[in-house]
Amino acid sequence: MSEHRTAIRCARITKTFGSGEAVVHALRGIDLEVRRGEMMALVGPSGCGKTSLISIMAGLLQRDEGELEVMGTDPGALSGHERTKWRGANVGFIFQQFNLIPQVSILENAAVPLLLRNVPRREAHERAAALLREVGLAGRENSRPTKLSGGQQQRVAIARALVNEPRILVCDEPTSALDGATGQKVMHLIRDITRRDDRVVILVTHDERIYHFADRIAHLDDGRVTHVSTPAEALAESAARMGEAAAARG
Fold it and tell me: How much is the pTM?
């Protein structure tokens, strides 16, 4: 892989929580590279380290050991204030729960990251409105989140995540609160909007129905990346495991 196409490089990253008998080894030496313009899915059982890994990549959590480079910067080498500023300028988040503010309009919700960076309100609203149009919510700018469906609320969350024009989009189970058809539409939207801007998308999911949106899939288990596969290979592995389990029961 040529260096100029490498967006995120993790080398021997470890993370431990607690101490003594209560110690938890969340990450046990992660090696992973993510390319520019790529959607990388992180999959694996609950507790395997996916959330810890994306938190370190996004500058939300400090690693214990190892090397990290994200778009040419090591977030762990920044001061707390510098890291917050770097994260606000470079990383967008889409969560399982939409985390919208129910008391204000979806326009205000989408504009929040800009307002937190002291962008003038008029400019923030204009940029937020443009993204709401792009995600199919034109004419609904003054609606409150509670008046929208789950899929529409996730679209607001996508607009909010992209309003800062981040280079990295972190999606933590973005379809788990949605039905299958709505989840597919949301993933099409995420892929189409982000790919044309050469953004990096890190997708944490347990939903095999959206594997095909990823370019590559990193499989984690017990704090390690066991292997990286294509979506087709990942689905074939899953089918094989289900077949083995069925045979064992039979």
Answer: 0.91
